[in-house]
Protein backbone atom coordinates (compact mmCIF):
# COMPACT_ATOMS: atom_id res chain seq x y z
CA UNK A 1 0.00 0.00 0.00
CA UNK A 2 1.27 3.44 -0.95
CA UNK A 3 0.14 6.19 1.42
CA UNK A 4 0.48 8.77 -1.33
CA UNK A 5 -2.41 7.06 -3.14
CA UNK A 6 -4.67 8.14 -0.25
CA UNK A 7 -3.85 11.86 -0.48
CA UNK A 8 -5.79 14.00 -2.92
CA UNK A 9 -4.99 17.41 -4.35
CA UNK A 10 -7.52 20.20 -3.93
CA UNK A 11 -6.86 23.21 -6.17
CA UNK A 12 -7.31 26.75 -4.87
CA UNK A 13 -7.91 25.78 -1.23
CA UNK A 14 -8.00 27.61 1.12
CA UNK A 15 -7.16 30.47 -1.25
CA UNK A 16 -6.55 30.78 -5.01
CA UNK A 17 -3.17 29.47 -6.09
CA UNK A 18 -2.78 26.95 -3.26
CA UNK A 19 -2.72 23.22 -4.07
CA UNK A 20 -3.92 21.65 -0.81
CA UNK A 21 -2.87 18.11 0.13
CA UNK A 22 -6.05 16.56 1.55
CA UNK A 23 -5.33 13.69 3.95
CA UNK A 24 -8.96 12.88 4.78
CA UNK A 25 -9.05 9.87 2.41
CA UNK A 26 -6.01 8.48 4.27
CA UNK A 27 -7.67 9.11 7.63
CA UNK A 28 -10.84 7.37 6.48
CA UNK A 29 -9.06 4.20 5.38
CA UNK A 30 -8.26 2.11 8.46
CA UNK A 31 -5.32 0.34 6.80
CA UNK A 32 -3.77 3.57 5.47
CA UNK A 33 -4.33 5.30 8.82
CA UNK A 34 -2.60 2.49 10.74
CA UNK A 35 0.28 2.36 8.24
CA UNK A 36 0.78 6.14 8.45
CA UNK A 37 0.81 6.02 12.27
CA UNK A 38 3.37 3.19 12.20
CA UNK A 39 5.60 5.02 9.73
CA UNK A 40 5.46 8.23 11.79
CA UNK A 41 6.41 6.23 14.88
CA UNK A 42 9.34 4.64 13.05
CA UNK A 43 10.71 8.10 12.22
CA UNK A 44 11.23 8.71 15.94
CA UNK A 45 13.30 5.61 16.56
CA UNK A 46 14.30 5.01 20.18
CA UNK A 47 14.47 8.67 21.22
CA UNK A 48 13.03 9.55 24.63
CA UNK A 49 9.89 11.67 24.28
CA UNK A 50 8.10 13.21 27.27
CA UNK A 51 5.49 15.23 25.35
CA UNK A 52 4.06 15.17 21.85
CA UNK A 53 2.89 18.58 20.69
CA UNK A 54 0.15 18.36 18.06
CA UNK A 55 -0.54 21.45 15.97
CA UNK A 56 -4.15 22.53 15.36
CA UNK A 57 -5.91 20.91 13.89
CA UNK A 58 -4.60 18.19 11.63
CA UNK A 59 -1.64 17.57 13.92
CA UNK A 60 -4.14 16.19 16.43
CA UNK A 61 -5.02 13.18 14.26
CA UNK A 62 -1.70 11.41 14.68
CA UNK A 63 -0.27 13.43 17.58
CA UNK A 64 -2.49 11.69 20.13
CA UNK A 65 -1.75 8.28 18.61
CA UNK A 66 2.00 8.94 18.75
CA UNK A 67 1.78 10.14 22.36
CA UNK A 68 -0.02 6.96 23.39
CA UNK A 69 2.46 4.70 21.58
CA UNK A 70 5.42 6.61 23.05
CA UNK A 71 3.97 6.62 26.58
CA UNK A 72 4.16 10.41 26.47
CA UNK A 73 1.80 13.26 27.24
CA UNK A 74 -0.09 15.03 24.47
CA UNK A 75 -0.10 18.84 24.27
CA UNK A 76 -2.36 20.68 21.82
CA UNK A 77 -1.19 23.92 20.23
CA UNK A 78 -4.23 25.90 19.14
CA UNK A 79 -5.42 29.12 17.57
CA UNK A 80 -6.09 32.06 19.94
CA UNK A 81 -8.99 31.75 22.35
CA UNK A 82 -9.33 27.96 22.10
CA UNK A 83 -7.36 26.97 25.22
CA UNK A 84 -9.06 27.61 28.56
CA UNK A 85 -6.05 28.30 30.81
CA UNK A 86 -3.16 30.79 30.81
CA UNK A 87 -1.33 30.67 27.47
CA UNK A 88 1.73 31.99 25.67
CA UNK A 89 1.42 32.87 21.99
CA UNK A 90 3.50 33.19 18.84
CA UNK A 91 2.54 34.89 15.57
CA UNK A 92 3.96 33.52 12.32
CA UNK A 93 3.77 33.79 8.53
CA UNK A 94 2.28 31.04 6.39
CA UNK A 95 2.04 30.61 2.64
CA UNK A 96 -1.25 32.54 2.42
CA UNK A 97 -1.12 35.09 5.29
CA UNK A 98 -0.31 35.20 9.01
CA UNK A 99 -1.66 33.44 12.07
CA UNK A 100 -1.07 33.01 15.78
CA UNK A 101 -0.74 29.87 17.89
CA UNK A 102 -1.05 29.37 21.64
CA UNK A 103 0.03 26.76 24.15
CA UNK A 104 -0.84 26.44 27.82
CA UNK A 105 1.90 28.05 29.88
CA UNK A 106 2.17 24.96 32.10
CA UNK A 107 2.02 22.34 29.30
CA UNK A 108 5.78 21.98 28.87
CA UNK A 109 8.15 21.71 31.80
CA UNK A 110 11.81 22.74 31.67
CA UNK A 111 13.82 19.84 30.30
CA UNK A 112 10.87 18.03 28.67
CA UNK A 113 11.91 16.15 25.54
CA UNK A 114 9.32 17.17 22.94
CA UNK A 115 8.20 15.78 19.60
CA UNK A 116 6.46 18.34 17.38
CA UNK A 117 3.92 16.74 15.06
CA UNK A 118 1.85 18.23 12.25
CA UNK A 119 0.38 16.86 9.05
CA UNK A 120 2.32 19.03 6.59
CA UNK A 121 5.60 20.94 6.54
CA UNK A 122 5.08 23.69 3.96
CA UNK A 123 6.84 27.05 4.40
CA UNK A 124 7.91 26.14 7.94
CA UNK A 125 6.31 29.12 9.67
CA UNK A 126 3.89 27.07 11.74
CA UNK A 127 6.51 24.59 12.91
CA UNK A 128 8.98 27.41 13.64
CA UNK A 129 6.35 29.13 15.82
CA UNK A 130 5.69 25.90 17.71
CA UNK A 131 9.41 25.33 18.29
CA UNK A 132 9.69 28.88 19.69
CA UNK A 133 6.75 28.26 22.04
CA UNK A 134 8.26 25.02 23.34
CA UNK A 135 11.70 26.55 23.82
CA UNK A 136 10.20 29.59 25.58
CA UNK A 137 8.73 27.18 28.14
CA UNK A 138 12.06 25.38 28.62
CA UNK A 139 11.34 22.30 26.53
CA UNK A 140 13.82 20.62 24.20
CA UNK A 141 12.53 19.82 20.72
CA UNK A 142 13.84 16.34 19.88
CA UNK A 143 12.22 16.08 16.44
CA UNK A 144 9.76 17.82 14.12
CA UNK A 145 7.70 15.01 12.62
CA UNK A 146 5.34 15.35 9.63
CA UNK A 147 3.17 13.10 7.50
CA UNK A 148 3.99 15.23 4.42
CA UNK A 149 6.80 17.61 3.50
CA UNK A 150 6.31 19.99 0.58
CA UNK A 151 10.05 20.33 -0.10
CA UNK A 152 9.60 22.88 -2.91
CA UNK A 153 8.41 25.41 -0.27
CA UNK A 154 11.73 25.11 1.63
CA UNK A 155 10.19 24.86 5.11
CA UNK A 156 13.29 23.17 6.48
CA UNK A 157 15.15 26.46 6.13
CA UNK A 158 13.11 27.94 9.00
CA UNK A 159 13.86 24.90 11.16
CA UNK A 160 17.65 24.83 10.89
CA UNK A 161 19.20 22.89 13.73
CA UNK A 162 16.09 20.72 14.16
CA UNK A 163 15.77 17.02 13.35
CA UNK A 164 13.07 17.08 10.65
CA UNK A 165 11.40 13.90 9.40
CA UNK A 166 8.51 13.23 7.04
CA UNK A 167 6.85 10.07 5.78
CA UNK A 168 6.03 11.52 2.33
CA UNK A 169 8.00 14.21 0.47
CA UNK A 170 6.70 16.07 -2.56
TrEMBL record:
Pfam families linked to this entry: Pribosyltran
EC number per UniProt: 2.4.2.7
Reaction catalysed by this enzyme: AMP + diphosphate = 5-phospho-alpha-D-ribose 1-diphosphate + adenine
Subcellular localization(s) per the UniProt record: Cytoplasm
Assigned keywords, A-Z: Cytoplasm, Glycosyltransferase, Purine salvage, Transferase
Keyword Ion transport found: no
Gene Ontology molecular function terms on file: adenine phosphoribosyltransferase activity
CDD domains recorded: PRTases_typeI (cd06223)
Pathway note: Purine metabolism; AMP biosynthesis via salvage pathway; AMP from adenine: step 1/1
Primary location recorded for the protein, binned into one broad class: cytoplasm
Catalytic EC class: transferase
Superkingdom of the source species: Bacteria
Domain (Phosphoribosyltransferase) ranges: 32-148
Role, per record: Catalyzes a salvage reaction resulting in the formation of AMP, that is energically less costly than de novo synthesis.
Protein family per UniProt: Belongs to the purine/pyrimidine phosphoribosyltransferase family.
Subunit-level organization: Homodimer.
Name of the protein described by the UniProt record: Adenine phosphoribosyltransferase
Gene (UniProt): apt
